[in-house]
């Protein structure tokens, strides 16, 4: 692009494999925008409606839609963090023999030293984002997921009471719920209830800091962590692992069958662990900060319900956004245990909820698969995210052992 970066207008063209209707959605729907443009997004696509996009790096931009002509043009203002003034983005769509010529023009970029770095960053940002857009629209997969390295950690919540219980002197950071077998975190010796408070010298307040720090790294790179293990503060160097990306089937029926296989395997292991567990053992709590078996099952029921809500949202392109992981609301767990009452009733509800999830996947409208980024995200989540239930099965084993030791 060279000298063009110095002008007050940046122009990009891409020929995309999809029709203008689908490309139009990628600039006017928040769920779609999060699949290629930004880590967070919100949109009200009408003249005068708001536009917002945010990234884990700390950059964000906002503005308003000025032109919304279905399948032809989308324009919006752009005021990025620390940018000298508001600029303009215009997106033009032209159908070409079953494909779409996309022309994006980012204009009203000022002159002078204050704009020099801004233009470069905007240019680099759009180049990378439009490359992702091409991949997401053609293949469905998000390269920010498929190409990123991983720590091999399942995280959970941390609150003041829990921090006191596990003996850490902080109430911020990321608490390790489980390390994944064979990946970098386990090999580095990280353990359950370790609290990650720094990565490469940067304080870790939330998952966004960690994601931002890993964004430009690759599998095999070493990162330096600082963790609290109880009251002890430990420096730990660990190698990043390669993410094993599952192949997502190209239709909902096949996806439902793959998810069903995973669930059946997990359910068989859960049945094995719970065989012979009495109502008394299932109700036993080792401490106020540990869940009983019944409470763990209630939590798994909630997780399955949340999966169903999310599936429904994705199917209609209205995905709810969330701040971090959220916390496990104990009142919700206790309410579910109180209403279902017995251990057997809780297990039956969990089994039904799993069957309902599989049935929902199979019955989603076939048109959903046309939104390749959304469909791939759903498939990837259900086929890769096997560690939540397996982690809680280990927790159940520990709870049962503690109950029997108490007798």
Written overview of the protein:
There is one protein chain. With 407 residues, the protein is α+β, with helices and mostly antiparallel strands. It folds into three domains: 2-139, START domain (Alpha-D-Glucose-1,6-Bisphosphate, Chain A, domain 4, 2-Layer Sandwich); 149-242, Roll (Pdz3 Domain); 252-406, Four Helix Bundle (Hemerythrin (Met), subunit A) (Up-down Bundle). It is built from 14 helices and 15 strands. The protein has helices at 20-28, 30-34, 113-139, 143-146, 160-166, 184-187, 207-214, 252-274, 279-283, 293-315, 330-340, 343-363, 372-384, 387-406; strands at 10-16, 40-43, 50-54, 60-69, 73-80, 87-96, 99-107, 149-150, 153-156, 174-179, 195-199, 202-203, 222-229, 232-239, 241-242. A hairpin with a 3-residue loop joins strand 4 (60-69) and strand 5. It is globular, with a radius of gyration of 24 Å. The N and C termini lie far apart (74 Å).
Largest sheet: 7 strands, antiparallel
CATH architecture of the largest domain: Up-down Bundle
CATH topology of the largest domain: Four Helix Bundle (Hemerythrin (Met), subunit A)
Strand content: 15-25%
Oligomer description: single chain
One letter per element, helices H and strands E, the order comes to EHHEEEEEEHHEEHEHEEHEEEHHHHHHH
Can you list the strand order of the major beta sheet?
A: 1-7-6-5-4-3-2
Average pLDDT metric? 93
- State the end-to-end distance: 74 Å
Number of domains: 3
Number of strands: 15
Shape: globular
Compute the gyration radius: what is it?
A: 24 Å
* Alpha plus pi helix count: 14
